[in-house]
Design brief:
The complex is a heterodimer of chains A (275) and B (256).
Chain A lengths: L1 H34 L5 H5 L11 H32 L4 H15 L2 H15 L6 H25 L3 H8 L5 H30 L2 H7 L16 H12 L2 H34 L1
Helix pairs in contact in A: 1-11, 3-6, 3-8, 4-6, 5-6, 5-9, 6-8, 6-9, 7-8, 8-11, 10-11
Chain B lengths: L2 H4 L2 E12 L2 E12 L3 E5 L6 H7 L10 E9 L2 E2 L6 H7 E4 L10 H11 L5 H14 L3 H4 L12 H13 L5 E5 L7 H14 L4 E5 L3 H7 L2 E6 L2 E7 H6 L4 H7 L5
Parallel strand pairs in B: 3-8, 3-9, 6-7, 7-8
Antiparallel strand pairs in B: 1-2, 1-4, 4-5, 9-10
Classes of the chains: A mainly alpha (275), B alpha/beta (256).
């Protein structure tokens, strides 16, 4: 009987693992099956044409813009905020409150951020439906992610490093710069990579702040559509599942490439610092 | 502590009390530490010897809620009255219980302190690194691999590089907080030899759990118990003819 229970449990574990992998394979398989026929150099690098047959290059460019702009703003603010909370602030009620706020922010549905962005950046700041308005909204979305992961990374730096550095007559800033930040780099990087995934995958908030113009953006003040928004709209407007799936393939490949480069970079960093 | 010795003392501690929040950890400590001698601080766990050591370079400042009263005068300056902690710590180096080299090369570890002081000249740095590693008796073992990670060394080697890193700052005083507690007997012996050789150039204050170690390396010994200094005298006297019953009980191994 005990043996039977043990085997049953094993079976359950195996089944759960199998199911989760199987579902992933099915989704990816489905997307590839539906969309692979459309993938060509022309499709990826071609300009969009509303009459069909065009490419998605404008959406790729728009996606890259939003990623770059959001990260350029969110990364320094996020890292500085985390350093303040973890290294400088007196641990007390205020810090707890700020932590609680950042944690809560990660749980808010992105459509809410989109609404805020549409009201504040688009209307109040008069940025209009634009890549900039969307990027600023995305900045707010990923800021808590960067703050949290950076804080966690800072926490893993051994106390003995700090003591060792300070005991050599260094200032707090020197210790931070030369010892603490380099040691927590892999963690900080993984936070940034996570944010890239979040930005590339976001659709609702971008839809409400960047609009849906399907053309190569003239500047960051132009309205434009990202890959995810494009995928959503073609399904919605024309029911063209194949086109949406083809966009999906490009998205999956981008995310995969980002994740692989993230593991590669953090491995390299670990080698540089530990070996 | 006769008057004649008082004159050569480099650290003078008077009526030092230390509190962790509400809890008092040091009670009215008076101690005069002599220049270019090795002073050992012994006592059972939790007696305050490490806490005391860490007041000498103000490492306790890093802990929230630590309050200190009394005076510590190092080199004619009350270290709790000046605000220049940085200068104090360049003068008073420290070696910790476990080797705590940074994840950098051996060279960068030793050059770290001088670089942070603003020394950029390569030749000068090379000389400091070599001299420091030689003084720490580790140069021969690492001279071919200065650019490799310091964390690839054995524990004993790492601890000697830690000592070199402290020496690179050209301090007057080096504090050692149980520097051999994480090491094997052979590495321990090497460090003890090193300490004996170092005292011609530096004043050394060493916390140790190991009474044989205190007897082997130190000139003076202070016995701490429950946050107080019970007895402070020449090491020979402490171990052969202690004045206080509690000291005798401790050094003969009756408790601790």
């Amino acid at each position: 009987m005990r043996q039977f229970k043990d085997n049953l449990f094993r079976g359950l574990l195996w089944l759960s693992a199998f199911l989760s992998v199987a579902i992933l394979v099915m989704i990816v398989g489905f997307i590839f099956y539906k969309g692979i026929g459309l993938i060509s150099l022309e499709f990826i690098f071609g300009d969009y044409s509303p009459t069909g047959g065009g490419g998605i290059w404008p959406m790729i460019i728009t996606t890259i813009y939003t990623v770059l702009i959001s990260l350029v703003i969110a990364t320094p603010i996020g890292i500085l905020a985390a350093v303040y909370l973890q290294e400088y602030a007196k641990q007390g009620r205020l810090v707890r409150l700020i932590r609680f706020a950042t944690e809560s922010l990660t749980g808010i549905p992105s459509i809410i951020y989109g609404l805020f962005g549409a009201v504040f950046f688009v209307t109040t700041l008069k940025l209009g439906m634009s890549i900039l308005a969307a990027s600023l909204t995305l900045t707010i979305i990923v800021l808590p992610v960067i703050i949290r992961t950076t804080e966690e990374a800072l926490k893993t730096v051994p106390r003995s490093y700090r003591e060792g550095s300070l005991a050599l007559g260094t200032t707090k800033l020197q210790t931070l710069y030369k010892v603490i930040l380099p040691s927590s780099m892999p963690g900080i990087l993984s936070g940034i990579i996570l944010s890239v995934g979040r930005i590339v995958g976001e659709s609702a908030a971008i839809f409400l702040t960047a609009g849906t113009v399907a053309a190569m953006p003239d500047s960051i003040l132009s309205s434009a559509r990202t890959l995810t928004v494009h995928s959503y709209l073609v399904t919605q407007e024309s029911g063209d599942i194949e086109l949406a799936a083809a966009v999906g393939i490009v998205l999956i490949i981008i995310i995969l490439a980002i994740n692989l480069s993230a593991t590669y970079i953090s491995k390299k960093f670990n080698k540089a610092t530990n070996k | 502590m006769e008057q004649s010795k008082e004159s050569t003392s480099i650290i003078n501690v008077r009526d030092l009390n230390l509190f962790y929040g509400e809890k008092q950890a040091l009670f009215g400590v008076d101690l005069a530490i002599l220049e270019k001698e090795v002073t050992a601080l012994i006592g059972p766990s939790g007696c305050g010897k490490s806490t005391f050591l860490r007041t000498l370079n103000r490492m306790n400042d890093l802990i929230d809620g630590v309050k200190i009263t009394g005076d510590i005068v190092i080199d004619h300056e009350d270290i709790y009255k000046t605000n220049d902690v940085i200068k104090l710590r360049t003068k008073v180096g420290m070696v910790f219980q476990k080797p705590n080299l940074f994840p950098m090369s051996i060279y960068d570890n030793v050059a770290y302190g001088p670089r942070m002081q603003g020394i950029k000249n390569k030749k000068e740095l090379n000389k400091i690194v070599e001299d420091s590693l030689r003084s720490a008796a580790i140069w021969d073992e690492v001279q071919d691999r200065l650019k490799t990670s310091a964390l690839g060394l054995s524990g004993g080697q790492q601890q000697r590089v830690c000592i070199a890193r402290a020496i690179a700052m050209k301090p007057d005083i080096i504090l050692m907080d149980e520097p051999t507690s994480a090491l094997d007997p052979i590495s321990t012996l090497k460090i003890e030899e090193l300490i004996t050789n170092m005292k011609k150039d530096y004043t050394i204050v060493i916390v140790t759990h190991n009474m044989q170690q205190a007897a082997r390396v130190s000139d003076k010994t202070a016995f701490f118990l429950n946050g107080e200094v019970v007895e402070y005298d020449d090491t020979d006297n402490i171990f052969s003819t202690p004045q206080d019953q509690r000291t005798e009980d401790y050094v003969t191994g009756r408790f601790g």
